[in-house]
Each structure stands twice: as structure tokens, then as C-alpha cells.
Amino acid sequence: MPKKSTIVPNLLRTSLSTLERLNPAASAAVAERLWFRVGTPPPADRRNRHVTDPGRPFTVTHNGHDIHGRTWGDQSAPPAYLIHGWGGWWQQLSSFVPVLTAQGFRVIAFDALAHGDSGPGSLGGRCSTVPEMAECYHAVADRWGTPTLTVAHSMGCLSVIWAQRHHGITPDRQVLISAAATTSGMLDVFCGALGLGTPTRDRLVERFRRRMNRPLADFDLLPLVAAEQADRHLPPALIVHDRDDPMTSPIESEALAAQWPNSDLLLTEGHGHYRVLRAPEVLERTVDFARVT
């Protein structure tokens, strides 16, 4: 889904706005295709610009398509997984690799289907869903073992909780950074980026329900967390958000921390949605939180 208006071409915004005035049903059909679209990743040299160690490559097949990833550290060490967000790639979390391997973890990172270097998603090409991202995490965890630690970013946080709820993957500890907690918030960003109003938004919600066979609200993070807490247990969590994040709200992470027993909340400033993944205070706090004893 588009992340903010600055990356959406003005021609597309103008065209969709005009189409909405003439035929909201048609603009909703276009918006639905864009909602599930991941987008084309930058060239490999840009994705790798913060990578200091390329690791050991691996491939896992899911639904006939290849998930490509990397591992670092002692292969017998406790596994720590790095989970990118919607439209992301594993290299965005590469700053965690050296600090976690130094603490005795085996680090596993991968591109979900339709993302990065991995194969197409179930909807074709560069399109995917949160359940599919969770299934990719599940497939990789089947290969490398139950996570001792999981570090997730943005929509990756939702996919991790979805995997815990629907696939039984429960890390001993997890770090949730810049979590996209509510579908209404995600929809606000999406429609705002495309210049779409209520007529298209309402129809898009209904189209989503028909495609996914469940309402959009089923993908809200807070109810998923509450259900998981009631049925099983929630492992200790470090919840991180930057106050200057323009894409997801720190207020939602504060609400998540308030609901999550045995959680710590770290609010940073000046890093935004992506630089927070390389912020020294986030890396240091993650090490303290997840240190192997």
C-alpha cells in the first residue's frame, strides 16, 4: 500500500480523485488493487547500503514460490528472527545482525513473498496479504526452529502476532517497532496518500471483506493481542516507536504497551519510521532486553 503522499505520483492522485467523483465503485476497484500491492523494491545496491555482513543465503519454498533469506552466527545458537514491514526488505533490519550475533544469537532474516528478492505472492507478482506474510514467517521458522527472539517492524509486527495467533509461533521474547496497530489508521494513510475520500473508502472496506472473507477490523493488532492473552500467554515484549513517525502513530504503541503485560515501552525522537531501526538507543535497548543468559 502507498505509504505517504510524497511517493504517490500526482497524476495518479488526480486521476483517482476524478474517478471517485464520477464513479466511486470504479475508484474503489482500483484502490483495492493498490491496497494489496507491495511495490517494487529499490535496486540491490541501495537495499544493501547498510549491510556489513551478507550472511549465508537460504531458500524456503512456500505455495510453490521461493522465500529468500540469510542467516548469521552459530547454527546451533538460539534463533532470532528479523521481520520487515509491508513493502520492506530484510536489509532494513540489518543493524540488528551484529549486535544480536554478539549476544550469542543465530540471526535469521528473509524477504516475505512479493517482497525484496523473494518470489511472487499468492495474489500475483508484487501483491500480498498480512496472512501471507505470517505464513512466510511460519515457513522460515519451520526451517530454522521456534524463535527465541523476534524483532519486527511496522506491518511486520501485525504479521508476527497473526502468526502467533493462527500458527502457534510464540517467541520467548519479541521486539515490536513502529507497529501498525489499527486498520483505520492504515486506511487513513492509504486514502490520504491517494487523495481518496469517504465514498471510495467505504467501498474499499467492503471489497476487502469480500476478498479476505473477514472484516478489515479482524486485522487490528490490539484485539489480536487481547485474544492471544486470553487463550494462551503473551511473551515479554519491548515496544518501540518514534514520536516523529509520519506513518504509524506512537499513540497506538502506547496503547499496545498498556494492554500488554510484561512489556516495556521505548519512545524515541527524531528518527521517523525507518531510521529508528538503526538508532543506537533502540539497538542498545534491544540487546539489554533480549540478552542471552
UniProtKB/TrEMBL annotation:
Keyword Membrane part of the UniProt annotation: no
Q: Name one Pfam family in it.
A: Abhydrolase_6
Which stretches make up the AB hydrolase-1 domain?
82-283
Q: GO molecular function, one example?
A: hydrolase activity
Record's keyword terms, sorted: Hydrolase
Q: Where are the transmembrane segments?
A: none
- Among its keywords, does the record have NAD? no
Q: What PANTHER family does the entry give?
A: ALPHA_BETA-HYDROLASES SUPERFAMILY PROTEIN, HYDROLASE
Q: Which named protein is this? A: Alpha/beta fold hydrolase
What species is given as this protein's source? Ammonicoccus fulvus
